[in-house]
Amino acid sequence: MTATTAPEAALGVLPRADGSAKYSHAGYIVTASVNGPIEAQRRDEHPYEAHVDVIVRPAAGVGGTRERHLESILQSSLAQIILVRNFPRSLIQIVLQVEHSPENDYVNTKLVQANLNFAIMPALFQTAVLALLSAGVPMKATATATAVALSHQDGSKRTIVDPSPREVETAQSVHVLAFTSHDELLLAESEGDFTVKEWDDVYETASKVCCQSALQKEGIAMVLDDEDAGGPAMRHFLRSTMESKVAADLHWK
Amino acid sequence: MATNERLFVLPGETIDPSLIPTHKKHPLRLGPGLRHIPPSDIVPTVAGQLITNPLKNSMWVEYNSHRYIPSQGDIILAQILRSTTDFYLCSIAPYSAPATLPHLAFESATKKTRPQLAPGSLVYARVSLANRHMDPELECVNPSTGKADGLGPITGNGCVFDVSLGFARRLLMARSREDGGVGVLEMLGGEEGGGLAFETAAGRNGKVWVGSESPRTVVIVGRALQETDKGGLGIEEQRRLVKRLVKEMR
């Protein structure tokens, strides 16, 4: 199962939320809503900065420890790019609902138990960033994320961008990396066995996917095949999505 | 408005220094959506259109959103939540921190003669204090003249409709038809709407009060506003919408 489809997004899908986004990529479909800055509960209040609350809801079942883990990772990286100091004592609530995740063709999985893994992180992260932009929450920078799997097959190494569930299962290690629009590493989570050299390779691959602007991408695509360029140019995608949203909002200008 | 450049920006992008206006006398003024990082960086914080005004030496990012963030001097439509000994607590946006409206911040209000407002009643007010570390404060009187200037409790039959913040700003423009491209209200009161009689009060917080003696008129006007906002209608489409609504609701 090779789900290397181009990412797609729709903004403002939920009428009552301050901002919302629906994002689909590599077989994952995630809807996010963002509300904020709103009044925080007494125990969440911070005197100098906004509290960022991330809630991950799986496609089936209720969230468990895995979801809490993903939430905590997302929370700490999103709080880095949101200008939390602009809104002391308030709350910015991000709810991520997984609607669909790709199935593993080799294992008979019954969709009754929440079963999230690392490969979904980029989709969650990207949806959250799009929903934040749609809500107009002030941010320091935008960010893009990608997942990279390393697998050893017949003695040769293979780097897979946006791995499928089967590839995640057979991979030696899975990595999730996110970069801000200033090319800074925002999030790096890894799972499995790998060497420092391998991680450096993963970093190179991920930064290519996340940080390439449209022009460079086109230049490469002309020389190489699309597949070799490794995944879509996420930054270009984010920009064009937001550009069309703003153009629709400001049609009267 | 003297604007020429239509540039799309994302948070954190660098703004080309040639786009930043300069002026001999006025200092540079930054509007919403921009932040200044000392010493000399100006960085957008939201996705939108960068707009510069060389005459006033100001720049800001134009964007649409739903969550109102109070800023001083804005005219808003607030709802009284409850009263305390010295002030009313008002809701300016759902789930946002409540704003305070002092009992004495009304025209010719004294300790003995102050307006008695029940929870749920509406006031058209100005934001007199907006500070991120404090709850916002409202007033219904001009503090220098003591006059209401059109602010105060809203009375009469009517209904509040929610619109997006961008649409509310367009309604509040001095020439909303020419600059903002909103003509529904004129049309409803004019020839296309068959001369409906109604009054409105638009607040920057994305709330519009529509008042009229006839409930039918209130519904027509409210629906026309909301559909214009949601559908992003142009002047000609607005005219068609008004005609259709008036015909349907006969």
TrEMBL record, chain A:
Keywords: Exosome, Nucleus, rRNA processing. Transmembrane segments: none annotated. GO terms for biological process: nuclear mRNA surveillance; poly(A)-dependent snoRNA 3'-end processing; rRNA catabolic process; rRNA processing; U4 snRNA 3'-end processing. The keyword Acetylation does not apply. It comes from the Eukaryota. It holds the Pfam family RNase_PH. Residues 9-138 form the Exoribonuclease phosphorolytic domain. Its main location: nucleus. It is found in: Nucleus. One of its GO terms (cellular component) is nuclear exosome (RNase complex). One of its GO terms (molecular function) is RNA binding. Belongs to the RNase PH family. This is Exosome complex component RRP46.
UniProtKB/TrEMBL annotation, chain B:
Keywords: Cytoplasm, Exosome, RNA-binding, rRNA processing. Residues 158-215 form the K Homology domain. One of its GO terms (cellular component) is nucleolus. GO terms for molecular function: RNA binding. Gene3D superfamilies: 2.40.50.100, K Homology domain, type 1, Nucleic acid-binding proteins. It holds the Pfam family KH_6. It is found in: Nucleus, Nucleolus. InterPro entries: Exosome_RNA_bind1/RRP40/RRP4 (IPR026699), KH_dom_type_1 (IPR004088), KH_dom_type_1_sf (IPR036612), NA-bd_OB-fold (IPR012340), Rrp40_N_euk (IPR041054), Rrp40_S1 (IPR037319). Residues 28-67 form the Exosome complex exonuclease Rrp40 N-terminal domain. GO terms for biological process: CUT catabolic process; exonucleolytic trimming to generate mature 3'-end of 5.8S rRNA from tricistronic rRNA transcript (SSU-rRNA, 5.8S rRNA, LSU-rRNA); nuclear polyadenylation-dependent rRNA catabolic process; poly(A)-dependent snoRNA 3'-end processing; TRAMP-dependent tRNA surveillance pathway; U4 snRNA 3'-end processing. It comes from the Eukaryota. Belongs to the RRP40 family. This is Ribosomal RNA-processing protein 40. It comes from Achaetomium macrosporum.
